[in-house]
Predict the structure.
Amino acid sequence: MEDVMLQTVEAVIERDGRVRLLEAVMLPESRRALVTVLPDAADTAEDLAAAYAEMAADEAREAEALEWSNALLSDVADEAR
């Protein structure tokens, strides 16, 4: 049996369950594969935008983040170069 390196390829899973690879994969014989279902990129972007808006609306959290970043910048400014 020939050694085959692990490969990761992007694919789309159709609604009927068919898997469509987005690039060609050449193998010496049939191989097993694992499929990981990822969230839709559009859904992820919308969720991320909503999470950032929620964090920005939290004034106490924003004040704490500003204080932390100012302290960090102060520490970096004090370092010898």
